[in-house]
Specification:
Elements (H helix, E strand, L loop, with lengths): L1 H6 L5 E4 L2 E2 L13 E5 L14 E2 L5 E7 L4 H15 L3 E6 L6 H4 L6 E8 L2 E8 L8 H6 L1
Length: 143
């Protein structure tokens, strides 16, 4: 789990602001709010030495997106895209309650969704404001 690795100051993991640009015709360039990279595989990234661009999912351990007015993208398209890239964890932070009722419940309340990759699909666990634990303070400390 990424949280445990960061909490234990695991060597090789660090936060970065990068672009994710997979080399695929139909791929969309993304600039996540927070990315945790694995320094041990960055030497295989063809663009990394010149610019903050990641092309391979295996370089990324975690992506965090803070939901914006285009919440559909965070809850649907990015879930699919990040899973296809093989990114092990994707966190969706919806503190402004922008997501649809199907994603954050009714009544709408601040929701933190943890997506963990199992084979090629994310399993999702939702946490509400009163359920937040020390795991989520990690984002608060870095944001």
């Amino acid at each position: 789990m990424v949280f445990t690795l960061l909490q234990n100051n695991s060597p090789g993991l660090f936060l970065a602001l990068v672009y994710i640009y997979p080399f695929a015709d139909a791929a969309t360039v993304r600039r996540p709010d927070i990315v945790v990279l694995d320094e041990t595989v960055l030497n295989r990234e063809p663009l990394w030495e010149r610019e903050p661009v990641i092309t391979m999912g295996r370089s990324i351990k975690l992506v965090v997106e803070v939901v914006s007015s285009k919440w559909e993208t965070d809850y649907a398209r990015k879930v699919e895209e990040y899973a296809l890239l093989g990114i092990p964890e994707y966190w969706i932070v919806d503190y402004r309650r922008l997501g649809g009722v199907a994603f954050i419940g009714k009544p709408k309340q601040p929701t933190f969704t943890v997506c963990q990759l199992v084979e090629d699909t994310y399993t999702q666990q939702k946490y509400r404001l009163n359920q937040l634990t020390h795991r989520f303070c990690l984002v608060c400390n870095f944001a």
